[in-house]
Amino acid sequence: MTEREVFPNAPLQLVVFEARHAGGLKVGREALEALVAVFGIAARVNFGGPALRLADEAAGPEAALFQIIDSSATLSVTVWPTSLVVESTEYLHFERFRATVVEVFASFVEIVRPVAFSRVGLRYVDEVHPDPPALLPRDWGRWIDRRLVDFSAVTSRPGTGFGGGLSIDLGDDYMLSFRFTPVPGPAVESAGTLQLRPRPRTPAVILDTDGFWQPEEAEPLAAQGLERLLTRLHDGIRELFDSVVTDASRSLFRSKEMARQ
User: How much is the pTM?
Assistant: First the structure.
């Protein structure tokens, strides 16, 4: 396995695991208490609402059945009528997050017993805050691959906004959906349940990568299969991230100091 660099000043703000199933779940009080006991992370239990979302994303139409939040308010487990979601804002290593997800998933499958899964996703949302700040589209070429920003040179007039996206077929029903968007400030907002990492209130570029497995028809999935699935998705996401960020960004990520506001 290739050794992956772990950055002390990583730009990662949010990691989300989602497993979608056939839906129609009715999780009663007994199942809820069993899930809370098995997960063992609960500091409190909430009903309804996603923990985190990008600023430009609207809340979904369905209400969560319940959400369990750990004592540090950096990890949550949310059970929706059609999905299981694990979110983290204090991500240190993939292997640790994977172990947590697999444990939660195994308990969920054992207690709730969904028949099959139609989509399993792993999403990483990075916020790159350059120092000094990038103010014009062309400035971002120092921090992310210049091929992503060169199209802004089609006009000599000042650009007021730009961005783009790409879908990548990894084969065997595995896909990546990537988008990048410069924003004037922090773009991941908390609904009040999870604690975000401190970051400067300066211009940033959002690198939003959603890796997912989506078979033509829903399939059963066991914990051992999920572990392999997550590893494959993560490998694709990390390869793309390493291609997008520049050496200047990597130097920024290696810095132990970060401006706080």
Answer: 0.88
**pLDDT (tens digit, 9 = 90+) per residue, 68-93?**
888 888 998 888 888 999 999 999 88
What's the maximum distance between 2 C-alpha atoms anywhere in the chain? 64
Q: Of 24-28, 142-146, 213-217, which range is least confident?
A: 24-28
Residue 77: exposure state from Cβ atoms within 10 A (0-12, 13-18, ≥19)? buried
| Closest among 197, 198, 194, 199 to 74, alpha carbons compared | 194
Domain boundaries, the chain: 8-261
Contact 84, 2 (CB under 8 A): no
Task: Give the CA dihedral 181, 214, 175, 203, nearest 10 degrees.
Answer: 20
Tokens of 123: 């999403």
Summarised one tens digit per residue, pLDDT across range 171-191 is: 999 999 999 999 988 888 766
